[in-house]
Design brief:
It contains no helices and 7 strands. It is mainly β. The chain has a single domain, classed as Immunoglobulin-like (Sandwich), CATH 2.60.40. The strands form 2 sheets. The protein has a 4-stranded antiparallel beta sheet with strand order 4-1-6-7, with no helix packed on it. It starts with 5 loop residues before the first strand and ends in a 5-residue tail after the last strand.
Length: about 70
């Protein structure tokens, strides 16, 4: 059984959007969550989820390290 990778997303402002994208020939949105400041979401890549898009200011922790998303102005 393959090991599943998780990421941790902590919102640093209200209204951070976390969007799951499908795997396959046509990439589509399949799940969306909205986080407010301080809320934490643990997400995982699965056989259906190939990418996760984050809009808004957030801290993201993965097995590859920690990154911060920025808000466009």
């Amino acid at each position: 059984m393959a090991q599943t990778e998780y990421i941790v997303i902590r919102a640093e402002e209200d209204g951070v959007h976390v969007i799951g994208l499908t795997r396959g020939t046509d990439t589509k949105f399949h799940h969306s969550e909205k986080l407010d400041r301080g809320e934490v979401m643990i997400a995982q890549f699965t056989e259906h989820t190939s990418a996760i898009k984050i809009r808004g200011k957030a801290e993201i922790q993965t097995t590859h390290g920690q990154v911060f998303s920025e808000t466009k102005k």
